[in-house]
Amino acid sequence: MAPTGSRVRPQIVAHRGASQDRAEHTLQAYVLALEAGAEALECDVRLTADGHLVCVHDRRIDRTSSGRGPVSTLPLTELESWDFRSWKEPWADLDDELDEQPAASVLTFEALCGLAYDWDRPVQLAVEAKHPTRYAGLVERRLVEMLRRFGWADPSAYEPARVRVMSFSWLSLRRVRQWAPTLPTVFLMERVPLRFRDGSLPLGSRIAGPSIHVLRAHPGYVQRAHAAGHEVHVWVVNHDDDLALCRQLGVDAVITDKPGQVRRLFET
Predict the structure, then answer these.
(1) What is the pLDDT of residues 124-138, one digit of tens each?
(2) Residues in a beta bridge with 235
(3) Catalytic residues, which ones?
(4) How many CB atoms within 10 Å of residue 93?
(5) Residue 96: per-residue pLDDT
(6) Domain ranges of the chain
(7) SS3 of 221, please?
(8) How far is CA 50 from each of CA 16, 78, 114, rounded to the nearest angstrom?
(9) Which of 58, 75, 172, 177 is most deeply packed, by most CB within 10 A?
(10) Superfamily assignment of 11-267 in CATH?
(11) What is the Cα Rg of the chain in Å?
């Protein structure tokens, strides 16, 4: 997945869905993002106590649900009993259902894959493997197994990959490369380590994932990363001036909470 160099504008990636307007990591947030024109969906994955991948950002479910406790200590059946929507949308009709999944239920990664697979146009997934975790490499193993079920774990060089795996942990990305060598990987960075400021990345990583704060402080990083043969995917980009900066610098993808507004901005 080499940098395009000729992309007219960055790809629009919905951060946890259309998370400015809907509860993050809910099916409703992702459907709204796709309806608004998002070209890729970003999600975080964690492993439940009984081995299921679920889309939850925090280590604990306290902030985004009516329940409490670490995701890793709770079985899927218990997670499904909590409300993951009304903290953000207290007015929502919780009796509504999409694809037979309760509207407020925790979103499984399998269900998100199914949404992307069945959508009426190609949709990419940008999946962050959360670390640290008590399950270490089991998260990546389960992730690759699920992607293989959908036929997405082994993209060829002749077609765009449907999924890329992201992490702040280079060990996580190395595990992914071990089990799915052709799957694109994104090395996420809150700051660029000194040894990678020339645009290089850890062995096996193919895409740079700096924060928008990095680009504001070091706009020349994009050119260096491109010169080293890497795409640049920036998170989380919500403000018009930052979006303009990303477009001016030739960034390949922006991860945003408001995909619909970004789409309209890029089309003007």
Answers:
(1) 999 999 988 888 899
(2) 211
(3) 15, 57
(4) 7
(5) 53
(6) 11-267
(7) helix
(8) 23, 11, 21
(9) 172
(10) Phosphatidylinositol (PI) phosphodiesterase (3.20.20.190)
(11) 18
